[in-house]
Amino acid sequence: MRPSEPSRSSNLFRVIIGKEFAQLRRDKTSLRLMIMVPMMQMLLLGYALTTEVKHTPVAVVDHDGGPESRSMIRAVSNNPLFRFRGNAASEADLREMLDRGTVKLGLIIPQGFSRQLESATRFGQGGQGPATLGLGPKGGGAQLQLLVDGQDANSAGVARGYLSAVLNQWAMHRLGARLEAAGIRLDQLIPLSTDTNVLFNPLLKSTWYMIPGIAVILVTMVTALLTGFSIVREKEAGTLEQLMVTPLKPIHVVVGKAVPFFLIGIVELMVALTIAQLWFHVPFRGNYLTLIAFCACYMLSSLGIGIFTSTVARTQQQALFIIWFFLLFFMLLSGFFLPVENMPHWVQVVTLVNPVRWFMYVLREMFLKGSGFAELWREGLAMLGIGFTVFTFSVLKFNRKAG
What we know:
Number of domains: 2
Shape: elongated
Largest sheet: 5 strands, mixed
Number of strands: 5
Radius of gyration: 30 Å
Helix content: 55-70%
Strand order of the largest sheet: 2-1-3-5-4
Distance between the termini: 30 Å
């Protein structure tokens, strides 16, 4: 009895999928690279890609030399956020240290600083009451000058904020001591207080935000590259033409080669989740089956990119260049490094067709907030629509090339 067309097609799919898995088992080196390299990248990038600013080198020019300035310098030098490089002899020496890159922050304490601070915080003796510790020529109370190496605008802004916070904390401590001596409570003078409760990431660890993004990038690279390389390798070996003269249709070849790498992508994601939770202690508050469903929608796009690349590239080197060209734009426009909301409006419109943007948002929401289908169905539909379009277009292009 002749088998039905669906049964025959199913058998052909199983043949090509079995062939692909057999080839992967024979290629021990590639198999190890698929697992070990992403794990190493996850561990390394999890530490390297962080928005936290630590150990910023700082130097001080102390023109005052009084007890208040020495106390302030101790507060800065003992803070683990900074690396104190000592006192500079003059402002010119401090500028030279900034020019050489020896320090990133320079603090200038003017002459008479201790006297100004004492006068600004004197109570009951003709003083003006509590005043602020100013940074720059227009601040109230005692004045300081802060020089910042602004080459890296983000790090410079964060480091300046840290130092300003440390100095203001020191000033408030000194002010509180003076008030207590005068029989006045500091909280009585502050008209407003704020009780802050940070949700989802209470310690404000940047790794909790960055590591889910790294997992998305690794899954994208593995599935897109391996799918593209697999088909291009058949071209280079001359076996793709042999497959085309068999009863196999182009759709059998494409899907048969995509399925193993789809499963590998799922495994890579689970490995990344395990490392994130056990090594970096990033909580995963979502549902695993929901995550796999969203990942399946997303990998239609990454697998489609690999298939499309295989129709254009003739060698594996060309495939690598083309896929990396796509991935570079996908990463930069995904919100991985910078929030999408900070981009110009027309760029935000472009990111709507970027599948990496949607999956990165989904994974971060599931990790930290525990969001599910009820909250993320719009992003899921976006990934499914983009993935279906990309995958269908790639398969049709492969059919034309193969035909």
